[in-house]
Specification:
Oligomer: single chain
Radius of gyration: 17 Å
Largest sheet: 7 strands, mixed
Strand order of the largest sheet: 5-4-3-6-7-9-8
Number of domains: 1
Number of helices: 9
CATH architecture: 3-Layer(aba) Sandwich
Bound molecules: S-adenosylmethionine
Helix content: 40-55%
Strand content: 15-25%
CATH class: Alpha Beta
Distance between the termini: 38 Å
């Protein structure tokens, strides 16, 4: 029997979800950065800055940025880890990874970039000091499997950081829905010539586990001291956990 999952609000076969997610990111890669700035009014930069501060990467650290896309986190981690460190920019999508790799190279950062699936990480156990995933987990089919892989590759004492859209505080729900379902696809059409991908974005956010559910999932994956921080009234949340 074919296993099914969600692609936004649609129920689809698991393989179809992987294909549909790939289509979204091939389509938006070239306009991804500008769309992020416009649709979040620059807020995604603050959320990432908070994540970077929480990661506290030091010289010599080994870091893995999963679903790293255009490289916002990896580029800062690479500078912080310095020449004695090792920072990998990884993503399942070639179009996104190419943009990220070129951005890092243009800034003089020679970090390894690798096309790989978060659900099957090609790294040894106990290797990284930090593993990060920003706005990527939502798109993964088997989130439990991906979280287990993230834990596996962390060193004992290493930290996982999951930055993701989350459940917004009750009073903001109506205006946020209006923004997400009316304005966002319109902007997507105007800027990236692709309303559909931004409709998927809004739907996938609604289908993603809320703060407490994701915390439980991380604990079930074996992470300890799991905690989260609501950002902008829960529009996004940073979850962190330690491998002990
Ligand atoms: C919204 S982008 C986030 C990019 C970047 N981390 C950021 O915060 O700007 C989501 C990324 O997740 C990637 N992705 C989706 N499923 C994945 C998987 N199973 N393994 C690795 N990356 C995946 C997509 O290709 C896409 O580049």
């Amino acid at each position: 029997m074919t296993n099914t999952t969600h692609f936004g609000y649609k129920t689809v076969a698991e393989d179809d979800k992987v294909r549909e997610v790939a289509k979204v990111f091939h389509s938006v890669a070239a306009k991804y950065d500008i769309m992020n700035d416009v649709m979040s009014a620059g807020l995604h930069r603050l959320w990432k800055t908070f994540t970077i501060a929480n990661a506290a990467v030091r010289p010599g650290f080994k870091c893995l940025d999963i679903a790293g896309g255009t490289g916002d986190l990896a580029k800062v981690f690479a500078r912080q880890a310095g020449p004695t460190g090792e920072v990998w920019l990884t993503d399942i999508n070639e179009s996104m990874l190419r943009v990220g790799r070129d951005r890092l190279l243009n800034r003089g950062l020679l970090t390894p970039t690798l096309l790989c699936d978060a659900e099957k990480l090609p790294f040894p156990d106990n290797y990284f000091d930090r593993v990060s995933v920003a706005f990527g987990l939502r798109n993964m089919t088997h989130k439990d499997q991906a979280l287990a892989e993230m834990r596996r590759v962390l060193k004992p004492g290493g930290k996982l950081l999951v930055l993701e859209f989350s459940k917004v505080a009750e009073p903001l729900q109506k205006p946020y829905d209006f923004y997400s379902f009316k304005i966002l696809p319109w902007m997507g059409q105007k800027i990236a010539n692709d309303a559909e991908s931004y409709r998927y974005l809004a739907e996938s956010i609604r289908m993603h586990p809320d703060q407490e559910t994701l915390k439980t999932m991380m604990e079930e994956a074996g992470l300890e001291r799991v905690t989260y921080y609501n950002l902008t009234a829960g529009v996004a949340a940073l979850h962190t956990g330690i491998k002990l």
